[in-house]
Design a protein that fits this description.
single chain; RNaseH_sf; 172 residues; alpha/beta; 41% helix; five-stranded mixed sheet; exonuclease activity
């Protein structure tokens, strides 16, 4: 099994009505060298300017991005090439990130290479330190920039740290 840290940027709160404009992923392993990045053209005329502003892109820029289907196919191919066994989806905010990735995979490809479940990094950390009031974000080394590869890398660094210092039992 391969842990894949994923982050997405979107122009609104839900998939379908709004669009995922880019996604990034990092294989969680020492070195964090295996990454994926795709920009995706919006699928909807609806968008929330404040939500899109977080990504750093303008609406005009996103409208020039490639169609989403090839990006999702490339992501699925990357997952097949880089994963041993079933890839495991993990993210900082899996309720948000998973909803977009799952919807896009099912909508454009008919299935999701991750299967039907995801893991929330924050919840994993809270369980490890036995406190619902704790936050893992101080374990990131890479600055949180809202570029999805940077953000996925920072979260993967935190997960690796959780394995090294806190005893998370997982094979990288």
């Amino acid at each position: 099994m391969t842990w894949v840290m994923v982050d997405v940027e979107a122009d609104g709160p839900i998939p379908g009505d709004y669009s995922m404009v880019c996604l990034g992923a990092v294989i969680v392993e020492p070195g964090l060298e295996r990454t994926f990045y795709a920009r995706l053209r919006p699928i909807s005329a609806q968008w929330v300017p404040e939500a899109l502003a977080v990504s750093g892109f303008t609406r005009e820029q996103t409208l020039a991005f490639p169609e989403p289907e090839p990006g999702m196919r490339a992501f699925a191919e990357w997952l097949r090439a880089e994963s041993k066994g079933q890839p495991r989806f993990v993210s900082d905010n899996n309720g948000f990130d998973w909803s977009f990735v799952n919807w896009y995979f099912h909508h454009f490809m008919g299935d999701n290479p991750f299967g039907f479940s995801s893991t929330n990094l924050g919840s994993l950390y809270k369980g490890m330190v036995k406190s619902v009031f704790e936050n893992f974000k101080h374990l990131r080394k890479t600055r949180h920039t809202h570029h999805p590869v940077d953000d996925a890398r920072g979260n993967a660094e935190a997960m690796l740290d959780m394995g090294e210092r806190l005893g998370l039992k997982v094979k990288w």
